[in-house]
DNA-binding HxlR family transcriptional regulator (Pedobacter cryoconitis), 234 residues
Amino acid sequence: MDENLPTITEKCGKKILSVHDAMDILNGRWKITIVAALFLNKMRFTDLLREINGISGKMLSRELKDLEINQLITRTVLNTQPIGVEYELTEYGLTLEKVLKALSEWGVDHRKRITGR
Amino acid sequence: MDENLPTITEKCGKKILSVHDAMDILNGRWKITIVAALFLNKMRFTDLLREINGISGKMLSRELKDLEINQLITRTVLNTQPIGVEYELTEYGLTLEKVLKALSEWGVDHRKRITGR
DNA sequence: TGTCACTGTTACTTTTGGTAACTGTATGAC
DNA sequence: GTCATACAGTTACCAAAAGTAACAGTGACA
């Protein structure tokens, strides 16, 4: 009755692995939300602080660094006064579109569910 | 030049919010991976420990409780010896299919990218 | 009687996240 | 000139979450 159980890991375990890989890049409480914000528009530091409810400057700064290291976003210093820094999704970052879309749709449905549809 | 910036929040901020809502439920490092595992099959505690690389009993136990509270999975005690407990996605848990599919696909591509395509 | 499998829990440490105050530069108001 | 403001962060300190390892309780089996 149990003889075929090991094959679950062998055959389909890759899915678990790949999901975990994805979450390794998108770890922490804010990365996915930041990427979601940048899907709307490229934004500057303070724009992101405003758009993302609850995030602090420290966390935003740290998460943006991580996302840049992982090549999901670019950081461009503008020659404005005072200095502005613009964050934008890279082409690679844009490949997260389906993930973000799915999450957003599920989030909307979930909100309906918990607020009593 | 800045007059239209506030509308970003007003018009599209809901997407950011809904993504953040979704991540509030799927928070922590393991929940999404656990759900991914349960998409393959209903499983028992030790099965999950085996399938999910790196998780500890403590975290698995805790995350399963959270997922059960949020009605994404059910917990069924089997009358086997020694006692077995089976975890299974609820219908609501199954609504995460698109999210998991998107994450899995992105994870596969990402792995190709970092292991040198 | 001792060991094993299963499903957890507990105590302890490490890592991560949150808060609030601060840095440094430039700009316009007074 | 000096004061307050905006931008893009950083720092020091504290709280919460996650990781590790050892243990608990039950019954089967040798």
User: Anything to note?
Assistant: The beta strands of chain A are 43-44, 73-78, 84-89.
